[in-house]
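Dear Dr. H.,

I hope your travels went smoothly. While you were away I took the liberty of generating a structure for the chain from your last submission, since the lab meeting agenda had it listed for discussion. I wanted you to have the full record in hand beforehand rather than looking at slides cold. The sequence, exactly as received, is reproduced here:
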Amino acid sequence: MTTATIREKLHDYINIADDKKVEAIYTMVEDEIAEKFDHWQDQEFVNEMNRRIRDYESGNVKCSTWEEIKQKTSPL
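The corresponding predicted structure, in token form, is as follows:
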């Protein structure tokens, strides 16, 4: 399993986990979270950002403005 997949699974789990489990996970990594993390030093992050830029610039992905997103997601 790739690191990206693991991250996605953790994000999904944290969003639905009960409060005690979230607090337990946070306690395990609290010190690391407190340290400033420079995403631009993470090669996997840089590679992903470069891929997304290439996709955008080549027209392979359709992008929406913030106003379009708000309009699509607002209740009727």
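Two observations you may find useful: Residues 66 and 72 are 10 Å apart (CA to CA). The helical segments are 3-16, 19-34, 43-58, 66-73.

With kind regards,
E. W.
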